[in-house]
Amino acid sequence: MSVVTMAQQSYATVISSQFVMPYAVNVTVDKYSSGYLVIRDEYRNTLFTIRSCDTNFHTQRLLQDAYGSSIAMLRAKIRTAHARWNVFRVHGEANSDMIFSAARNQMHPSQSPESFMVRIYPHVDNAFVVAIIVIVDAMKTPGTTAVVAGNFVQGAVWGATHSFG
User: Fold this and answer.
1) What is the pTM of this model?
2) Cα–Cα distance measured from residue 16 to residue 90, given in angstroms and rounded to the nearest whole number
3) Superfamily for domain range 2-161
4) Cα-Cα-Cα-Cα dihedral of 34, 35, 38, 39, to 10°?
């Protein structure tokens, strides 16, 4: 994580500073039956897409920007005692390529809507918030590894979507 200071404004980046906006962004998360997710702004412009690319060993989601460029690979082992998602720089698999990880703390079963809105506040790494949303969605999707949860995700999303004075 890096901290960038611009004209008396500080913000932390987790994935990339190119996804930090100086203004709030209201995004809609649309989920399609194939598990494909599209994140759009209030003008219906695509900001991010997420596609499933599972293997025999991993549940995986590829996070891409609006132009289809790969940003991060979100990965969880299918058969493991550890309920953990690791987020890697694209094409990275070594621990040194890991951006962050999220582990299950507790489960909160609920129905996942097909579309919902999230407000991302100014100076927050939008790609990081989207990565957390993807992990929560994968956790709620039947047939995928149920990981990350309540307290971590709620805290991470709250922290990433609230202004820090």
Assistant:
1) 0.67
2) 12
3) LURP1-related (2.40.160.200)
4) 160
